[in-house]
Amino acid sequence: MTDGHGSQGGTHGGGRRWGHAQEEHRIDPYKRPQKLAEPTACPQCGAVYHQGRWQWARRPENAQETLCQACLRTNDHYPAGVVTLSGELAGQLKSELLNLARHQEEAEKTEHPMNRIMEIVEAPREIVINTTDIHLPRRIGDAIHRAHRGRLEVHFDEKAYFVRVTWQSEA
Questions:
Q1: Where in the chain are the domains?
Q2: Is residue 84 over pLDDT 50?
């Protein structure tokens, strides 16, 4: 192992690693602790587990089948991220806001198949977007904030693999 600067490192007592205090990392409870046998394919979305990660690839003939964590979350209706868009503009610009969100999803999931929108719930002055990961919500919120200003808040749950992003229009 290296410490990011090319030098060898290891765990030293006292919760320190490579001379730096370890940070607590949020761990996705849907991510398997061991690597899957390769090749494995998700029968629901078609992603292929290859070289230690899920990716979009042609399904190998001899692939085992197991649901990926994004499909498991979607089936369980258990989002890792929630984006709430509200206010007068959210109702007026619903189509544009959803297009921005879908564009961010497409850009993200091209390289990261586990980062997806799993559900969109629409109300007259509010849109709620549930995602399968904690990165896509921030990306969606930032894109909408750049395009329409308003108030953007991001809250990462310190004890769980979860993020809540809220955007409210200024009108």
A1: 78-168
A2: yes
